[in-house]
From TrEMBL:
Subcellular location: Cell membrane
Keywords: Cell membrane, Kinase, Membrane, Phosphoprotein, Transferase, Transmembrane, Transmembrane helix
Entry-linked PANTHER family: SENSOR HISTIDINE KINASE YPDA (PTHR34220:SF7)
Membrane topology: Multi-pass membrane protein
Transmembrane segments: 7-28, 288-308
Gene3D superfamilies according to UniProt: 6.10.340.10, Histidine kinase-like ATPase, C-terminal domain
Transferase listed as a keyword: yes
Protein name: Histidine kinase
Top-level taxonomic group: Bacteria
InterPro entries, per the entry: Bact_2-comp_sensor_kinase (IPR050640), HAMP_dom (IPR003660), HATPase_C_sf (IPR036890), HATPase_dom (IPR003594), Sig_transdc_His_kin_internal (IPR010559)
Domain HAMP: 309-361
One GO MF term: kinase activity
SUPFAM superfamilies: ATPase domain of HSP90 chaperone/DNA topoisomerase II/histidine kinase, HAMP domain-like
Amino acid sequence: MIIKKNIFTKLNAVIFIFLIPILLLYGLSNQVSVQVVEGLLQKEKSNQLEFFRKQLDAIALSLAMNAITLTRDTTVLGMERAMLSGPQQQLIQIESNVQEKLTLQSSANSWNNDITLYFPSVQRTLSTSFRQIPYDERKLDKSVRVPGWSYRPDPERPDMSSFVYYAGGPINENGKLDQSLVVAEMAFYESNVTSLLDQLKTGSKGDPFMVDRQNHLSYNRSSDKQTTSAVVDALFQKTLEEKGDFVSEIGKKTYLVNYVYSQALGYYVVDYTPLEQILFPITKIRNFFYGFIILLLAVGVMASFLLYKHVQAPLHALTGVLKRFQNGDFSVRLHKWFHSEFDFVVVRFNDMAGQIQHLIENVYEEKNRSRMATLKQLQAQINPHFLYNCLNFIISSASLGRNESVIAMAYNLSDYYRYITRLDDPNTCLRDELKLVKNYLEIHTLRLQRIQYEIKVPEEMMDIQMPRLLIQPIVENAIVHGLEPKMGGGTLVISGEVIGEYIRITIEDSGVGLSSDRQQQLTEQLNQPMDETIGYGLWNIHQRLKYWYGESSGLEITSSAAQSGLCVTIYWKEGYDHDSIASG
């Protein structure tokens, strides 16, 4: 399909050529901006989680060190000895001192915590908790075997669930605690972690939480638990390091997930942030820009359409009528109004076309009148000495008493002049034209007694229409200039044929002929204006053929191969509308 390169397509192409680089540059800039924001967000979240981890580890380590210190405290160890062998009054005093020490240790930390001392030797407990802690040897044995901090849920009161650290031991050969030691239990409540996560969430668009390898989760108070569970599933599908980040698609939303591992508690601190929410200002500006580009494109296309409607369409209409005008349709007019400056052009074009049509019609009519006058004048300019020779032959034959020759000459001469003096109709058929030629040849045969002729024209060509007096002047020229100067007899052959779209009539004689230089000179003179050096008969026929049948018709002069004389061929295009020219 070939696209026409008009103003409309060119203008739209320019609009798209300008918009495409802008869109590409903006798209690249927007992508870089998103990458920068994501990088800054990752760095910020990583720093926040790292600070959170350090704060959490510091508190957990401090509490763990307090528990270890208590197991080595002389007062605590002295209480164990008092429980075993000391008087009751001394035991009460020491217990009061230890309780006070535990209370001071617990209140010294900013997190709510409980400290419990287990005395395996006497199977007693001492605690800062408002609840009575019974001594459970099996539970204690099992708990002490777990190193570091562990999570202890409270089914009765979930808000009292806690993280627990045990200091004491080691376990003896029988798998039991050494009966001479004190075990310190340090517990801080999960609500402390929740409060710390709430602080991390404050002023942030993320949703932090903590999770261990056993999928225990510690949420902040406003956590989206469903989304958090999905993030946990995505987290443990990856190979986790001490800290890292990744992007995950959850619920048709994209989240940036950052995590860091707390060595003290054995938990991952995780924070996930919806990128759409973070990138909303950039996305909003991007959508506004694309909307503006679409609006600009629509305005550009509308402007180009208006330009097409008010400029290209009028030009197209004018081009159409100009092409028809160029092809010879001088009656064409533009009857369309554009309600713009082109209406003035339309009026002026119609006026100009009318004037040109009027001038061309006048010139054409005058040309046709001049042509017909010229043709009639050419027909009247037949050489009159031919008539004198014929009359002299009749007089001579009558004097000698050759009545048959006189009758034959008179008969052929009357038919001959009847034909050439009929000027009312310039057209004839090939049959009548050949009859005239035969009359003419019979006249010369009577006069000269040494000329033979032959007419070889197919019957199907006899009704072909043609101008009058095309063949006779050539035959006359062949006799006068070819056969009469030749000593002895001579032959003249007239033949006809149809080759393609052209009709060809050939007159060959066995006369004296012409040299090739003279033939070329004569051929060149046929297309030149008439002067005294040009033979009138051949020039007349050549010009008449061009008048009637156009530039592709004419007369051709060559040497006759068959008759060793001269060959003259006239040709014209069959079906050429010469009647309309003649009637003009």
